[in-house]
UniProtKB/TrEMBL annotation:
<dbReference type="InterPro" id="IPR036849">
    <property type="entry name" value="Enolase-like_C_sf"/>
</dbReference>
<dbReference type="Pfam" id="PF13378">
    <property type="entry name" value="MR_MLE_C"/>
</dbReference>
<dbReference type="InterPro" id="IPR029065">
    <property type="entry name" value="Enolase_C-like"/>
</dbReference>
<dbReference type="Pfam" id="PF02746">
    <property type="entry name" value="MR_MLE_N"/>
</dbReference>
<dbReference type="InterPro" id="IPR034593">
    <property type="entry name" value="DgoD-like"/>
</dbReference>
<dbReference type="InterPro" id="IPR018110">
    <property type="entry name" value="Mandel_Rmase/mucon_lact_enz_CS"/>
</dbReference>
<keyword id="KW-0456">Lyase</keyword>
<dbReference type="GO" id="GO:0009063">
    <property type="term" value="P:amino acid catabolic process"/>
</dbReference>
<dbReference type="InterPro" id="IPR013342">
    <property type="entry name" value="Mandelate_racemase_C"/>
</dbReference>
<protein>
    <recommendedName>
        <fullName>Mandelate racemase/muconate lactonizing enzyme C-terminal domain-containing protein</fullName>
    </recommendedName>
</protein>
<dbReference type="GO" id="GO:0016829">
    <property type="term" value="F:lyase activity"/>
</dbReference>
<feature type="domain" description="Mandelate racemase/muconate lactonizing enzyme C-terminal">
    <location>
        <begin position="171"/>
        <end position="283"/>
    </location>
</feature>
<dbReference type="InterPro" id="IPR029017">
    <property type="entry name" value="Enolase-like_N"/>
</dbReference>
<dbReference type="InterPro" id="IPR013341">
    <property type="entry name" value="Mandelate_racemase_N_dom"/>
</dbReference>
Amino acid sequence: MYEDFASKLAATMWADFDETPRRADGPPAEITDLNTMVIDGNFPWTIVTVETDKGVTGIGEAYPSPGVHEIITDYLRPVLVGENPTDVERLYNLMRESLSGRGSQEGVGTIAISGVELALWDATGKLLDQPVYQLLGGKVREEVAVYADCHAGEAMVESAKEGQEEETYEPEAYAKAARAAVEDGFDIVKFDLDVPSGREIDTLSRHFDPAEIDHKERVVAAVMEEIGDDAEIAVDLHWNFSPETAERLCRALEPYDLAWIEDPLPPENTDAMRELKRRVNATILTGENRYGRHGFRDLIEDQAVDFLAPDVPKTGGIAETKKIADMAEAYYQALVPHNIGSPVATAATAHVGATVPNFVALEYHAREVPWWEDLLARETDFIQNGRIQIPDSPGLGIELDWDVVEQHRKE
Ligand SMILES: [Mg+2]
């Protein structure tokens, strides 16, 4: 009786598989070529293409980095041509093996692999006629929150600089930029706080005196006074503070109840970060310089921060970021992905955010690039009211407007 049931079950389970169950049971497609191109945005947005013999092209993006093109075309192309693009997990490991000892754990090798991984997911979704989020296990939310990086100083959006020419680091400039972002619908706005105060100081020691701390606090106070409860405020310290200064700054900012304080310390030392988090009453975020689940392991296991900021086209790609989120979920840490990319990187990050419960918001870093939305062939804006509705079309669910890409393509 039992044997009968077991053999029936086995027959059913394997009925749909061919003789090579190691390969994905997808359409018999083959990768025919890999390439890259650069869009000249506020960063050199590096688009990765994976061509297939089925006329489907997967579009991905790698974090801007020298050497990505050479690694993809000289090393990864010969490894992947002829492979089935829907074998994403196996091909990810194959790419890591092929670059073993040459950056497959971190750095530009991992960045190149990430860019290809995004394109493989896009190709897979298009070949299987499914959106990427569905292939990852389905959506837990219909839309993802996007936070506005308002930068600071010279890089601040034009509307905030009006009448501020010489004083873009003054608190009033920050307040105006915050108001503009809130009016565009963003619920979280972020500013760089590692900025000049106008005083001549030695920044290399990472020690800052009380007058410097006071300048940072006045910036946050001005933003808070302008937007009140209309949006949450986050600040980015870009690794530029010593533990003692970071502690004094975090304490000075405690009354403002910030959404998070990003990268208060240099990125390498998890012990120092954990110690800071224990000593101050602040939500701490880090992670844009970490690679893969192994790179995030100590931050997660030591509970050294509250929020993790993997960069999808850098840290290993879509599936790797989901794995990081799943590890973090066991420690009640949340994902706030770093993103300085084009709409391709942004869409890939949105698909991850749609599929993991422990997600807060992803970054939008291109408010000063007026043609960012024009890169997409669609009727409506991709980011609306500080949110992205997760697209239902196959793959990443977006199509680039190749005429606009061409206009901004970098040689
Ligand atoms: Mg940052």
